[in-house]
Amino acid sequence: MLRAVGRGIRRQIVRRSSGVRLTSGAPRIPWLCPSPYVYHKPIRWSSSNARAISLPSETPPKHTDRSYSTAAAALELEDIDTSAIFPPLRRDAAPYSIPIEPLEPLDPSQLLVFEPPAAPEEKCMRKSTAGVSSDKAEVLATFNACIKVGVLARAQLMLEQITKNCIEERDTVVLVDAHNIFLKALLDQYSDSGNLSELKVFFMWFENKMRVEYSIKGDATTFALLLKGSLNIPAAEASKRYLAEYINLWRYSGRNIVDVLESAVLNNEEVLKIAKICHLRIGELSATCREMMKEQRKSRLEPPILAVPDAKPTPVKGPGLAAVKSSLRSLIDPDHMPFQEYDINLNDKEFQIERQKLLEEHAFDSARERWKRDFESLSERGVIKQDAEINSLLWEWHQALVPLIHEELKRVQHAEESGTKAAGAVDRCFYGPFMRVIEPEKLAAITIIELLRTHTLNGVGAGLKASRAVLQLGREVELEYQAQEVAKQRGEGFFANMSKAELETIFRDRSAFRNLISKSKSASDLDFEEIPEWPNTVKVKLGGVLISMLIHVARIPVEAAVPGLTEGTESSEKIVQHLPAFQHCYEYQRGRKLGVVKLHPELVKRLGTDDLNFTAIGKSLPMVVRPLPWTDWDEGGYFYTRSKVVRIRESVEQRQYVKAAAERGHLDHLFAGLDVLGRTAWRINRRVFDVVLEVWNQEKAFAKIPALNPDINFPLEPEPNADPKVRWEWAREMKRVNTARKNNHSTRCDVNFKVEIARAFLFEEFYFPHNIDFRGRAYPIPPNLNHIGNDLSRGLLMFSEAKEVGETGLRWMKIHLANLAGYDKASFSQRVAFTEENIENIHDSAENPLTGNRWWLKSDDPWQLLASCFALNEALSLNNPHEYKCHIPVAQDGTCNGLQHYAALGGDVAGARQVNLEPSDLPQDVYTGVAELVKASVELDAKRGLPAAVALKDLVTRKVVKQTVMTNVYGVTFIGARNQIENQLKCIESLDQKDIPALSLYLTKKVFDSIQEMFTGASAIQDWLVTCAKRISRSVRPNQLEHLKDPKTGEDSVHFMTSVVWTTPLRLPVVQPYRQVASAAISTNLQTVYINDPYVIDKVDSRKQMTAFPPNFIHSLDASHMLLSALNCDASGLTFASVHDSFWTHPSDVDEMNRILRDSFVALHGKDIIENLKAEFEERYKGFRTLVKVIANTPCGKRIKLARRNYAIENLGRPKLTAVEDLQWELKRWALMQSHDHDDRKIAAEMVTPSVILEKYGGLKVNELAENTGKLGLSVNDYGSPSLGDQSGDEGSIVDQEDILGPAEESDDGYEESAPLDEDMVLGGMEEGSRMLGTAGDEDIDLDDASTKKRSRARKELDEDGNTIPRDNGSAKGTLKPKQAHIATLNVWVELKFPDLPPKGLFDVNLLRKSEYFFS
Amino acid sequence: MTAASIFRRSADESIAHLRSLISPYALSRRSKLPPSLVNWQICDPIMDKLNLLAYKKTTIIDMNPNLGVFSAALHERLQPKQHILLEPEEFYGDRMREFQKTYKNSWYIPLDGYDWNTYNQLFSDNPPPPPWPDNFPKPRIQATTSPDDVNSDLLFVGHMGKSEKSERLIAQFINCCALGTWIQQYGRVRFLLWVPDSIKDRYLPRSIASRARPAASAEAVVDITEVASSNVIRTGRGFQKLPEINPDNVEVEEKRLTSIKPQERKVKIKKKLVIRQKMVEDEIKKLVAELCPGLTPTTRGRPKKLPSKEQKKLEETRARVRELVEAIRNEEPILPASIPCKERVTVLNRCDEIRRRFEHKKGAEEEAEKIP
DNA sequence: GGATTCTCTACCGACAATATCATTAGGTATTAA
DNA sequence: CGAATACCTAATGATATAAGTAATAGAGAATCA
């Protein structure tokens, strides 16, 4: 069995490995070198890979990898119970034996490393000649599309361009693949037509083009095709000759014919035929080959499709297509009760799979059918048009759109054939092939649905951004195409024809499933490794055409009164006009032009009121069966709809890393975790749904559902001649009201969608496939309605499975209810008491949700509360409430989860207590804690009579500081925090509004100080992270110097291209995508659209890299924690769902889940995360050089200046040194130091570069300009060596030349010289922390930190030099205001090293195992 | 040379010196700050041209007077009842204080003319808060009997920069004219503003094509005229509105070319040399065609071969013209003397035109008179 | 390379400005040698 | 055929657009000489 698997996958993996161009793999075509994108180091195959390539003849792989080996063993040995294909619980047979521990950090040699280009790449030149672009991705996609629709002439054009590109880029893999695909297409064409001249073309292509013109030798597949072609030659003699010729040619290049015969292109009969004709001895066929033949006859595991590649789809088994369709009617037709017509067993998985397939494949068809039905029934009834359901309108649009598309396709064909350069013709050549791959009817439906959907999701009131709409539509079309392709690959019977055992396997054993998929890929047809993605150019152009056609066609009946005879009156007569439903125009936003597609107000109104009836629900719906397990970076979840496991933002870099990680099996735990999330079954809470529906139809504002026509208080317009300021304030208020109204409407549309989806799935059990963002946080893929949505979404959803609550469960239900009611800060027993006190209210809410006293509406989360009320009420109405079977999930939320991780990392005792890491009788609340601290400090100030403090004395509340504390984790800046606090203070009436800016400024300082005081260690870590990110993002790779030439100017220049990359405990490589964006213009029928060009890797945005790193890192941790917990919960048989830092399970399982959460957290932090991070950084950025700022006005700085000057004069004949030259100097020394030659090293030792001088004077710790200290305080540079010096004694005197040039052993001399100790400056980390605690508020010391002092010291020196004249800062402002004392700095290239880790606090994570309120 | 001397308009205060008083950044092309008039000699011709006779005992609101050169001239000419200098930049503080000392009835208020509050404080009935001096006499402006009359009790002058702020402010001014709000409630109050070309072009477009919304809407409510502009050649299409004041005198905030040493310029121009080669060639061709009629090709293709003598003449002419055109392009102040007299005339006749082609654009101000 | 001014200001899911005119580069047609 | 020229077009770069910024402060990036 395994052998069979092995054969299928072998080719796959080999191709794949060359697909990422490993340096270790020899390029297939000798004259081509590997591409510049290479792994930093040769790969060591991980065990999982080794298993994957193991040859069939070998014994099964060693059980190095626990999870897989057990699964594989299970596959063979287990006696599978056919009745339990998808057991709801797998407690007994845990499918993945995941260690509870997070993974060990990667061996350094296993780190994934990709080098970004040395300089910003040039924007893709889209030089197009005769409609052939030179953009590789674009041509590739076009080529693919042309092949799919059989337009070979055009495909050939594309192929020629691809060949050019590939040869330039030395991309041999794609090159050969493309030619193979083309050959295959030619051959297929011949088989269809039987026209001999076509066969000739086939051979000519290989002989003339490939071999002669391009010198492509071809791979096994090429030759397999050639053999196949030769077989097809009718004349037996010729056929034989050709065969012999090609076999010889192949052998001549020293390769084994077996490889060719094993190719999936040739089926067994053909192989045998060839063997016979050419007298290949059977012995020459490899064991694999023979084995293969035997197996194919009696294969049990392999679906038939694998045995016969061209197999016709087998008829659907089971209840039949009609039944499946009928069962989905409920999704289309709200009046239809499913499952009534057929006797269907809902547990029949094959049936369910068919349904899912249908759902994905025919979502658009279904919508169309529904429109048509509505339209027809309407005509029968003869209803007046403008009252018609929106669906019939859509049907009209659709009917009008289809002929237009046909017409356009004709024009495309004309354009392609004529080859004119007429306006539009060139564009048509671009998008034409892509337009053809999907049938016009479907295309029309997608257009209509997507435009409406995009409007509800992102619309700005009556319009939506054209650029957005166009791209979105293009993307959706692509998605549909991909689904089509996947469906084709997997064939009709891919799932349906599997035996139950195989079906079982899919969900049990990832690797087995993976093999199955790759087999289906290789067997179905010759194809690219992955379906080429459509470039944005294509998507946008295609979207543009479709939308402009829809705009042209779509009309909406609008009723209007005919004006009366006299002016200003209306006659009672009404007329109906058919007005354009959409309109394209431009708006100005802050003086910038913005293309907008506007919807007619009537249409907008309809979208907010009409039943959408599945009108506009496209793809990405919840699934009716369990999502497929993730097997690759783009394989998993939906059956046919392709989704990526990581939501990469069109970043090539991220994709590289994720792909490589997936390939090496690093992501398997992550996949497993996501699978767990995906297999949580949900259903709609019917009772809540009914209430929602009722409320919805009332069209009034209720429980966060906005009213259809909200009463809006438009501010009174002031007199036209009022003061401009007054008028302006009015205008601003109007703007605010208007945006509020727009928001109101779009929320309403959103609710409409949610309700509609809920209605469609009312009788279903469904699942959310999940993927992750680039940090690893998981999100359900279906938009609109999912459990991380708003309160309404959450209220509508519940677990499909019900579990008996038992005693503890009931208690948790009560606690949960109290939480939802806002009573979540008390102890558990108090919360229970709260619920019990409110039992009447709960009863009332449940019994009469709308007519009673509506207690549930008071909550911030009314719908979830209502759901809880229903459940609890029901439970309590039982004789024995403990027997209640509960569907409602109970949520456990971390108290400021980010801070929890920070506190654990930093070992902050006080902080840990505040975020409930420490056991406590009562839950702690950080916000209150910080507020108290601030309050104390303010009161102290008030006593001293500080006016701001006096004003604020009694106003410091939890509410005021909450947002700031929360966002602190996200790196909020001082100003940002000040704004938050200002907004809070504005709500306090007793304050004079005029004073608020000043007060908020004061208070913000206090809040920042308090946070820092409470989370000392955390703050230090935050700063450490920032410093690391800063150094990384301002660093260059050593070999980057070879490509210093700026492509644009041709001059030498240094570009910072390094982004921060790290690996999470679950081995996800995280790449921060922040770079400067290059935007590209794409002209469409509608307008020119400007989008970011994803293909260029540009300079890093170092600010963003810096500010985002700490939150991203923490998020990557909490994501790991979540997935770890998910795996463990699953292993214990719990149903599990999560919203990042909120974890859900059945009431009865909450205790168990909490235990798991705590254990996972401890396990995660049990490893020294930060230490590992540092180690990874050191490995990853080994030898990099970074540019640091050094205070210039010190002996050290002066020496550097002098040395630079001397060097420049000596070597360049001028006194100045450019940054590049400086770097080259440093690198020269560095290179010499690495040399094996003793003399070289000696020379290096004698070189005195700026970095050497810096080192001599105590290095960065002493001399670096302290920065990024504003946020949480301490500069990282202040840890470690207490050698902070005041050089006043040396002021102005430049150290002797000999001293610098002297032998290296004098180094401590320089050190000493620069470091006469100044008591004030000696601040160790711990001392610092404790001192601050003790002296907070003491004016003399005043929380000043060493870095500030360093700054002030530098300033002082400046003053002494007389460079800056202190000015009184009057009311001057603007650019000419007196300058701040400016600190002169020098830039020095130093080796990229990372600061010492801040000392960890004393908190022991293990304590938290007993902390009840850790998550609550 | 004291700061005060300029206010007495002694001729010994050179323009160069005045320029040196401005912060270097404000002089740089990147600056969007309100620029400052330094050529005090043109103030009189400008005011001669403006009919200011009606402005007796008037109140002047002076926004961003900066160095105060224009303000001083205006003050001397009008002898206003009150001259309010709204200058928020502390940088000019000393000079403003000097101004206040020199000219009676002038009040230096370090507030921003952009802020509505400034005017609210000025016109409200309450005594104005601190930055305004205690003894500040409030202007009592009488509204004209008809809102269509020009109010000669009030005159608004100022320097506007290229900043977004300035642009917005002018848009607001016009809006106020339309609504009759703000100081326009007192009747039609005239504005006398120095504005950058970019702003002027918006309201006084140089071609039909560039006449966009702001121009149209402004025309509906205000009269805008260009009073004086620098002798800078304007780029782009559209007609060239020639300065109406003696162009040689209107030297506004421009860095003199003479201050740049030749070597430095070469470095700076280097890019242009490469970039605008085509333009130079085109100009040369045109000029050579003019200078050597009959020798230049008239047909499309390859030119006929000329007798070597004529060929040589052509080459020489071309070389000289090249020198000349490149000089113009390089903004060299003195044209090379290598060209014979007759030709020189021809070339110089077209000099302006060529200059315009090379758009020697500097930060220049326009003075626009607005008569609401 | 240094001083000065400009920009931006909380993470993620989530994603975006365009038309127009001036100028040049580069290809094609045209002509004469 | 190559050579020299004009003409034409696609590609690139610069600029305008709207029109209250409101006021905080500090670090990093960009820009100019």
TrEMBL record, chain A:
Keywords for the protein's UniProt record, in alphabetical order: DNA-directed RNA polymerase, Mitochondrion, Nucleotidyltransferase, Transcription, Transferase, Transit peptide
One Pfam family in the UniProt entry: RNA_pol
SUPFAM superfamilies listed in its UniProt record: DNA/RNA polymerases (SSF56672)
Reactions catalysed: RNA(n) + a ribonucleoside 5'-triphosphate = RNA(n+1) + diphosphate
Single Gene Ontology MF annotation: mitochondrial promoter sequence-specific DNA binding
KW Transit peptide (keyword) present: yes
Main localization (coarse): mitochondrion
EC class of the enzyme, as a word: transferase
DNA-directed RNA polymerase N-terminal domain span: 354-679
Cellular component, GO, one term: mitochondrial DNA-directed RNA polymerase complex
InterPro entries given in the database record: DNA-dir_RNA_pol_helix_hairp_sf (IPR024075), DNA-dir_Rpol_C_phage-type (IPR046950), DNA-dir_Rpol_phage-type (IPR002092), DNA/RNA_pol_sf (IPR043502), RNA_POL_N_sf (IPR037159), RPOL_N (IPR029262)
Region (Disordered): 1333-1375
Keyword rRNA processing: no
Entry's EC annotation: 2.7.7.6
BP-aspect Gene Ontology terms: mitochondrial transcription
Location of this chain's protein in the cell: Mitochondrion
Role this protein plays: DNA-dependent RNA polymerase catalyzes the transcription of DNA into RNA using the four ribonucleoside triphosphates as substrates.
Family membership: Belongs to the phage and mitochondrial RNA polymerase family.
Protein name from the UniProt record: DNA-directed RNA polymerase
Automatic annotation (TrEMBL), chain B:
Source domain of life: Eukaryota
Key word Iron-sulfur present: no
Enzyme class, spelled out: transferase
One GO location term (cellular component): mitochondrial matrix
EC number(s) on file: 2.1.1.-
GO BP terms, alphabetized: methylation; rRNA processing; transcription initiation at mitochondrial promoter
Keywords: Methyltransferase, RNA-binding, rRNA processing, S-adenosyl-L-methionine, Transferase
Disordered: annotated segments: 295-315
Protein's cellular compartments: Mitochondrion
GO MF annotations in UniProt: methyltransferase activity; mitochondrial transcription factor activity; RNA binding
Function noted in UniProt: Mitochondrial transcription factor that confers selective promoter recognition on the core subunit of the yeast mitochondrial RNA polymerase. Interacts with DNA in a non-specific manner.
Family statement drawn from the similarity comment of this UniProt entry: Belongs to the class I-like SAM-binding methyltransferase superfamily. rRNA adenine N(6)-methyltransferase family.
Name the UniProt record assigns to this protein: rRNA adenine N(6)-methyltransferase
